């Protein structure tokens, strides 16, 4: 009988995109593998994390080098939960134009939030919109 | 002869520009800007370019990558050219479907199938 992997939790303050993203992706990938997440889940979570953290730096903090992104993760064998918070003023996600509408299809930006929603089980923007909570359920109903 | 660059390989084959990605995670957000510049450079001196981008090695695409390809598509079209994408892994193709960009791009299973659609 194998011993289940212990609950994984991390809490980081990311102050630079490249190093922050690499740190988070490496830690999360290791934890997901330890808890038996399959390739499809790893792909989905990696993509959603990248979009969320990049959005935090680029759009939330507007690439201001004095601002950071706060990252928290909790992973067990049932689900993986993430919180990404930037130091920007927030935004209303309802105001993002739907990039899949015909009139918007050729606009080159605005697909990050859509991909996050497509790949994660639950996605919530906490008012004023500078904090994103998202969860991936390993065992879906 | 291949023209090596840091992220893509560009070859001319019977009048068709073939672009391959050299690394499976090359479409990481952190490299997107450079990839975009390399793609645009690959057609800068051509009129009516015929371009096939081969995704065999690509396992991951971020939203910024879609934007880069859309700009490249516009550049090719502005030169009265044709752009085809081929050999996408199912998960990468799924991203195009989710974003409905499969309606913007001409996507094919293989190099040969993409080649057949060039006029």
Key features?
heterodimer, A: alpha+beta, Heat Shock Protein 90, five-stranded antiparallel sheet, 3 helices, 34% helix, globular, B: 119 residues, alpha/beta, Transcription Regulator spoIIAA, six-stranded mixed sheet, 6 strands, 22% strand
Order of helices and strands of chain A: EHHEEHEE
CATH topology grouping of chain A:
Heat Shock Protein 90
CATH class designation of chain A: Alpha Beta
Structural class of the secondary structure composition of chain A?
alpha+beta
Distance N terminus to C terminus of chain B? 24 Å
Give a brief description.
The complex is a heterodimer of chains A (141) and B (119). With 141 residues, chain A is α+β, with helices and mostly antiparallel strands.
Textual characterization of the structure:
The complex is a heterodimer of chains A (141) and B (119). With 141 residues, chain A is an alpha+beta fold. Chain A has one domain: Heat Shock Protein 90, CATH 3.30.565. Chain A has a 5-stranded antiparallel beta sheet with strand order 1-2-3-5-4, with helices on one face. The longest helix of chain A has 22 residues. The model of chain A has no long low-confidence stretch (mean pLDDT 92). Chain B is of the alpha/beta class. Chain B has a single domain, classed as STAS domain (Transcription Regulator spoIIAA, 2-Layer Sandwich), CATH 3.30.750. The mean pLDDT of chain B is 89. The chains are: A alpha+beta (141), B alpha/beta (119). The interface between A and B is medium-sized, with 22 and 22 residues.
